């Protein structure tokens, strides 16, 4: 737990010290080091640099980091994962990505409870083509990054205008609405994709 906190603080420090370039590098690092949540950094990017720059640089950093994660998994992960999980699970993942291809990546990118890097590492373990993976990642990373950046920018502007308590209350109402929406969408996705 202490190591995770140190990693997170280091990534935040890079962003604060080097501005947009630091934010870009932090997004790449978080995509490779799985426990660091990209959502937290995107919120920080939106609060620090505004919705446009936070979303743009955040999505580009996520995409570059996803490429690294995909290749790390593709080049060295499959034999180890196959030994740990077994051939059956790997066959299922291969069939799922083969059947749904880019849609599987897009859905994984847009559902907030699915970690961004888990999709990258998972896709790298399958036979999905890199072109399909990167196209879907690029397509889905922009709305995701802009959403979290705009939320971060909104909270920062509310704190500046009305104070922390008011901004916190509004943010909690938005988060509650998003959780309900997420649960509905997740239920739809689970029903659709579990009926393979």
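Sequence proposed for the structure above (196 residues):
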């Amino acid at each position: 737990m202490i190591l995770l906190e140190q990693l997170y603080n280091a990534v935040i420090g890079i962003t604060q010290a080097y501005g947009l370039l630091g934010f870009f590098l932090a997004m790449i690092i978080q995509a490779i080091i799985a426990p660091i949540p990209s959502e937290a950094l995107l919120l920080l990017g939106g609060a620090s640099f505004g919705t446009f720059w936070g979303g743009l640089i955040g999505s580009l950093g996520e995409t570059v980091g996803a490429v690294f994660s995909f290749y790390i998994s593709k080049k060295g992960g499959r034999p180890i994962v196959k030994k740990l999980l077994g051939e059956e699970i790997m066959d299922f993942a291969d069939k799922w990505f083969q059947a749904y291809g880019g849609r599987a990546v897009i859905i994984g990118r847009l559902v907030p409870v699915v970690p961004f890097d888990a999709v990258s590492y998972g896709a790298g373990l399958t036979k999905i083509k890199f072109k399909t993976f990167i196209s879907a990642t690029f397509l889905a990373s922009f709305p995701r990054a802009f959403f979290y950046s705009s939320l971060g920018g909104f909270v920062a502007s509310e704190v500046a205008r009305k104070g922390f308590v008011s901004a916190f209350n509004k943010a909690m109402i938005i988060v509650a609405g998003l959780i309900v929406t997420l649960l509905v969408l997740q239920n739809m996705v689970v029903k659709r994709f579990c009926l393979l």
